[in-house]
Amino acid sequence: MTRDGQEQWATSPRPGRGVVRARLLDAAADEFAERGFSAARLSEVARRAGFTKGAVYSNFASKQDLFAELFAQRSLELAGRVLAEIGGMDPADAVGHSGQQIASSLVQDPGWSLLVLEFGLLAAREPQIAQAYLRERRHLRTRLIELIGERAREWGVENALDVRTTAISLMALISGLVLEHSVDPEEVDRNAMGAAVTALFAGAVARAGLA
Predict the structure, then answer these.
(1) Global pTM?
(2) 121-137 burial: b if 16+ Cβ within 10 Å, else e
(3) Whole-angstrom Cα distance, residue 13 to residue 197?
């Protein structure tokens, strides 16, 4: 039996670095979402992933470093959903539908959305965290500006629509809606959130058309 176990161990390759990092990031997502950034423990991340704490430190320099990579990964996933909906917007009749779809994306994982807000607050006080936060938020803002600009050209308002301000307003609105929804989900429900996103774009397009 011992011999079989040894043979089985010998023929079972150790997980590669990429697999280890992926498992640690998945475990960290659960740990951070349940406890918040400040209370999360790397020992628990390791336990959830099935590794020792040393495996965490061999892949990430610190808890901030681990969360920064997770933050980048999840932000891009959320951005992908939001950008896809913006890409399908039509100022005549589809903006409202897209606003609802964006709202649906925001409420899929409320724990993570609140965690992003917590990370933003910490970034305002801790320079090390601020670097990672700013890098990812600026990347997201750039992508939003690019896609909103593409839609503005299709709508024929590219010379009048303030694309950068619209992108900034959308990011700020999303952060605020997530917080309000977490506190008062009955009043700030999916419909209300969708209506707010729709109003932002409808107002921006309307002002551009009058310019």
Answers:
(1) 0.70
(2) ebbeeeeebeebbeebb
(3) 49
Q: What is the DSSP code (8-state) at residue 104?
A: H
Residue with tokens 């307003």: 169
**Cβ atoms 160, 211 nearer than 8 A:** yes
Residues 89 and 95: beta-carbon distance below 8 Å: yes
* Least confident window among 38-42, 77-81, 164-168: 77-81
Q: What is the pLDDT of residues 85-95, one digit of tens each?
A: 666 666 554 45
Residue 29's nearest CA partner among 49, 50, 54 is: 49
What amino acid is encoded at 20 in this protein? V
| Mean pLDDT of the chain, nearest integer | 80
**Spatial CA neighbour of 180 closest among 165, 162, 193, 164:** 193
